[in-house]
Every structure is written in C-alpha cells, then in structure tokens.
Write a structure and sequence with these properties.
By secondary structure, the protein is an alpha+beta fold. 39% of the residues lie in helices and 16% in strands. Strand 18 and strand 19 form a beta hairpin. About 16% of the residues have low confidence.
Length: 650
Amino acid sequence: MEVYILKSVACLGILFGFYKLVLENTSLHTTKRFYLLGSLLVSMLIPFITFTEYVEIAPLGSAMTEFPATHTATTPNIAPINYVPYFIGIVYGLGVLLFSLRFGRNLLRIYRKVRYNPKFKSQSVFHVLLQLPMTPHSFFNYIFFNKTDYDSDTIPEEVIIHETAHATQKHSWDIVVIELLCIVFWFNPLIYFIKHSIKLNHEFLADRAVLQKGADTSTYQKILLDFSSPDNYRDSSLINLAHSINYSSTRLNGLFSKDAFGQVKKRFTVMKTHTSRKAAWLKGILILPLVAVLIYGFSTTKTIEKPLTDSGTNVHNTNSSAIPTARSIDIQIKQNGSYVVEGVSAIKSTLAKTVSKLHQDLTPAIRSQMMNIHITQPEKPSREEVQFVFDALKDYGFYRLVAGNQEVVRGKGNTPMASESFTAIKKKPLVIMVQLSEITINGKPSSLKTFARDIDKLTKDWEETDYTDTRPIIKIASTPEAFLKKLDAEYKKTNFSKANGGLGLLPPPPPPSPDAPKPVGATFAPNAPIAPNAQNSKLIQYNSKDGTVKSTKGTNIPPPPPPPPAPNVIKGVNDGDTNIPPPPPPPKSPLDHVIEMAKKNATFYLEGEKISSDKAIEVIKSNNNLNIQTTGKSSKNPQVKISTKPVKIN
C-alpha cells in the first residue's frame, strides 16, 4: 500500500506540474477541466497497471538433484507488537471522520437554505432569495441572492449570467467529486492544489460565458473588482461547495497568492488570452507522451518463465535422459475449504481441472519426476486436506508434496498416511524449573502469583492432542515443601493440568510400607525386586495379553517372590511374634480394572477416539487381548486408553 500511495502521489505531482507550466494560462478552459479531473483518475490507475513478460528458458541437461528437507527444532520467539500501523490507522480514520462531517455539514446548510427560503424558477435554474447579506453564489441548479438586492434590481446582469453559467455547465459535480476525494486522500497535499485549480478554471469558464453574451470586458472587470474589494465583500460561508463570482479573490488568497487581488489579476490576464488552434493541438499532443512516460515509469512488470520450444515440438522428450529443472505449484487452502492455485480460485470438485491447466508442456511422466506441490497456507494443514490434494493430483503427476515443514515424496512411494513425517507426533516443549522460590518456564522467569497464567499463555494455541501427548520436564532443587504445595495448587488450575485429569506438579506420595516382621530365625531372600509405586514408575500400565506390569523404561517387572517357608519352631522356645507379611495380590483382570476406572468417572479412548464407559466395558468383554494404559489414576478424572497396538511409556 505504501508503494502504491507513493507512485500515485508522484504521478499526480507530474501531471499537475505539466498543467501549471503548459495549460493553466491558455484559453483551453474546457480541455483544462477534463485534464484536471482525468489527472486524478490516471494517477490512481497507473500504479495498478501490470505488464507480463514471458522469458523462455532452455531445460538443463543434467538430472534433477533432490535436496532432502531438514527441520531444525527451534524455540519460537514472540516478536514485540508493532503499534505503528494501529496508530497510523487511527489517525487516518480520524481524518476521514472530520472531513466527512465537514462535507455533510455544508450539504445540510445548503439544503436548509433551499428548503426554508422563497425560490422561483428562471429558465433551467432556480433563484433562491435569502434574508442574510451575502455574495451571489450557486450550487447545482440553485443560485442564491440577497432578497433586498434582488428585489431592488441592484445586482448586475453580468453577475447573474456568471452564476447561471456555473449552474448550466454542471460545475458543482466537479466540486462534489473533488470533495469526496479530499475525504479519502486528505493526507495528500496535492489534492488541495488540484481542487483550487479546478475551482479557478470554473471561474475562467464562467467569465468566458459572460463575455460571449456580449458583455464589455472593461465593465465586467470593474464589476469583478467591486465584488472583490473588502468593502463590498460579504461571506457566503459556503466556499467549500458553492461557486461565487469573487471566488479566489480573497478567501483562498492567503494560501495561493501574495497580494489580495492576485487571482483576479490572473482572471483578467486569461480573459485577454487567445490560444491558436495550432498551439492547442501542440499542447494537447504533448499529453500523450507524458501519459506514456508515466505508465512506463510507475507501472509494474511481472516476469513469467516459459520453457523453450523448438519448431512446435516439446523439448521435454520422455526418451531423453535429460530431466528438466524442477518446477512447483503453490496451493493455498482457505478457511471455507476452497483453494487458490497460482492465483486462480478453485473448489474441491474443480481442483484437479484447475491444476491440469498448468505446465501443459510436460507429460504426466515427466511431472512425476520433477513437479513439486507446495501447500503454502495454512502452515499446518490437516491430514485430511493433504490426503485430498494428494489423491486429486495423482493423475496429473507430481514428485513431491510439501505442506509446511512436512514432506511426502511420492517418488519414493510415500503417502500422507504412511509418511513418517506425518505420523510422527510433534510434542510441545514444557520445561519447569524450580530452585528455592525462583521459577522458570521454558527458560522464561515466572512467579508463584503468575505461574498458572504464564502456563496458560504458553499453551493457549495448543491443540487437544498437544495437551495429552506432551510430558512436562520438571526439575526441583532446594525448594521448601510449603512453597511446592502452593505451586502445585497453582499448577492444578492450568488448562494443561485439567486436560490431563488434574495432573499435579508433584508425584503422589507412595503407599505406606507394611511393618517390618521380626526375625524368627530365617531371613528373606536378598535382592528381592521392588514392587512398582509412584516413586519408581511414572505410569501404571496393564498389559492384558500376558498380565505383566511394565516400568517407564519398557522392561517387564518380575512378579513378587513366593512367600518364604515357615520357620522351624522349637517347642518351648518363644522368640517373639512370627507375623509374616502376606504376598502381594495378583494384578486385577483388565475387565475389573476398566470397571473400577468407570466408577471413578474416567475418560475412555479407543484407538485415540473418545468412547463411553459402557462401550469400553463391552470392548474388553469381547476382546481380552487389548492393551490398556491408565494415566492420572489418583486424580478426579483419570484417562484410560485402549488400543491393539503396543503402548509406549515415556
């Protein structure tokens, strides 16, 4: 937009400079009228002109080299907000509002004068008689006079002819157009110079009409001086929209002239000027090369590469060993599901047809070796959208499909569903470090008061799967227990904790260990395996296939040892109580575990899709060889994932 505004202002400045130097002091008033209005239109259109240049490029003889896409995981940097565009927009909006109110106020004042004052028709115009002292002026077909002067017949006939010329020649249309442009382009100073020149040229046209009616030049000039003198001048307060016989003599004089009668002198000079037909033709012809230079200098050129052909035969021969340079097609996916293919709109039913019109110089076989399809928007298209584009363009032929930082190389037999880059889960980073009372989240400092808010701000753009798939890294050092409890309470307020069934910052306390038995003459076996608990296992996973329990490292935890043999008790000897702890109970069956979780209002998932507890029980009853993974078992809302695939424990 900035480039367009600069080009438009430059064009308008050059056209206005040509008017001031070549046309203003001529008698070609009608030509000047259309030139000034046309300058505004041309200066707005030329920057939009675009010339397309086709450049023929010969194909390369070497085979195409594929560079594998590399993806580097980087921590996103939040750029500071740039408030300058907002400030400029507010200033521009205020300017448009003020100039619009000013324009509307002037229209309303003219309407009231026409509505509430006597008027009568004289030929094709209406004479409106006002009680207030004022200078005769016109607006469209209405000419305003002072009633006392009009009734006493003290208004010169030349003045009436002058104002009638403004009305019959429709000068008010020019004023309305330029006023509307002043509202939109109020920041462009050249608009106001053009507006002044348009109004002054209207006076030239009206002066010529008076002289053509047979008025004496000297007498008419004396009338202009009388109406322009400060003693006879009376403000009509409608200079922005109405035409007055003394226009520019005093009211805008301070801006455009050094003396009080500068513009009147110019009108006197132009009255005596006569431009010959030969000079008029010469000046008119100069406009054409001027416009041509502006088009050449301020238009836009777009270069399009076109493959080189020889005698109508396509150089891309499938029998040749040479493979042409790789080409690409950019596809944007809009929010409503439609597409933009290289600037051309399409829908799902027309996507393949739209793409087929591109690169027709290549056969599908060649395209399958060197054509790249780029989905440029959005940055993370859904798998369904990528699959649809992949299937729709199979017959067209392409080598590779790239969507954001994901890649499917069709030349290697990959598909969106099978491509490793698509099926891999990209986990979000969440690293929380607590030392004493200092807290950092992903390297950024936080506090107990803002802890929950900072985490929610970090995860506000996460998808539902990001919450459940991400495992936070929590590091705690030399921190008081009271502070950790407060921090844990704040952590449970976050959306991340709620999405994971109220997951806490701290692990739950381990279950109390049974009382150690007193020795009775025999000891337990050394190096007995430790049963899993909250301290040495992050998740509890039941594998219904063999009933084993796995640790976080994926290794099977051996079953508990058998109880030791009963000690030999010698009759008459009492070494104390011989309470031996019973062996741990066997793991619950998958069905019992699911029923227990259902009673705790757990959320169940089957192959990643959410199901009801009744459905989960029915599935386990029908197939006892499913894998079950339970998270947040001690929380208010545990999550149970059921799958036929092996479940990995982080």
